[in-house]
């Protein structure tokens, strides 16, 4: 079943020059395609909406500061089982627990700056796409 998902390449991915490598990994998956791609520095309001479920947690403010610290790349990726597939390609949130061959396992070093966000369900993907790409909702 074809799906859509939101992928964010976080400021550390852009700053470290890893965006091309990460996008290449996504593009090499048969049947997946990028249908929207945009480089931008996110404003706090957008991120507050996106991370609303984390309000009050100790990592919330540092996460917002990190995510507004520089340009990111927002993408919509479409394809068969893409939500689960991108999550597997990204690896565990904590890079120390992410397997070799995953984006986080190969390139990330700390949990907050872990290079990539990927929607965790088809429902989250649609909600998140509306936040970052309202014209594609």
From TrEMBL:
Q: Which PROSITE patterns does the entry mention?
A: NDPK (PS00469), NDPK_LIKE (PS51374)
Location of the active site: 117
Q: Which InterPro entries match?
A: NDK-like_dom, NDK-like_dom_sf, Nucleoside_diP_kinase, Nucleoside_diP_kinase_AS
Is Transmembrane among the key words of this record? Answer: no
Query: Which molecular function term from Gene Ontology is one that the record holds?
Result: nucleoside diphosphate kinase activity
Q: What class of enzyme is it?
A: transferase
Keywords (alphabetical) are:
ATP-binding, Cytoplasm, Kinase, Magnesium, Metal-binding, Nucleotide metabolism, Nucleotide-binding, Phosphoprotein, Transferase
| GO (cellular component) term, any one | cytoplasm
Biological processes per GO annotation: CTP biosynthetic process; GTP biosynthetic process; UTP biosynthetic process
Q: Which residues form the Nucleoside diphosphate kinase-like domain?
A: 2-136
Known cofactor(s): Mg(2+)
> Which reactions fall under this protein's catalytic activity?
a ribonucleoside 5'-diphosphate + ATP = a ribonucleoside 5'-triphosphate + ADP; a 2'-deoxyribonucleoside 5'-diphosphate + ATP = a 2'-deoxyribonucleoside 5'-triphosphate + ADP
Q: Which Pfam families match?
A: NDK
The primary site where this protein sits is cytoplasm
* Keyword Signal part of the UniProt annotation: no
The family line of this record is: Belongs to the NDK family.
Role summary: Major role in the synthesis of nucleoside triphosphates other than ATP. The ATP gamma phosphate is transferred to the NDP beta phosphate via a ping-pong mechanism, using a phosphorylated active-site intermediate.
Can you name this protein?
Nucleoside diphosphate kinase
Q: What is the organism field in this record?
A: Kitasatospora aureofaciens
Q: Which gene encodes it?
A: ndk
């Amino acid at each position: 079943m074809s799906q859509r998902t939101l992928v964010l390449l976080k400021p550390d991915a852009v700053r470290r020059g890893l965006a091309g490598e990460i996008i290449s990994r996504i593009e090499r998956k048969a049947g997946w395609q990028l249908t929207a791609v945009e480089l931008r520095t996110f404003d706090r309001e957008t991120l507050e909406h996106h991370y609303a479920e984390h309000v009050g947690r100790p990592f919330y403010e540092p996460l917002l500061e990190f995510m507004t610290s520089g340009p990111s790349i927002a993408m919509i990726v479409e394809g068969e089982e893409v939500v689960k597939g991108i999550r597997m390609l990204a690896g565990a949130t904590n890079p120390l627990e992410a397997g070799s061959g995953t984006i986080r396992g190969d390139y990330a070093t700390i949990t907050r700056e872990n290079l990539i966000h990927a929607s965790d369900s088809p429902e989250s993907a649609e909600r998140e796409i509306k936040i970052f790409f309202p014209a594609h909702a």
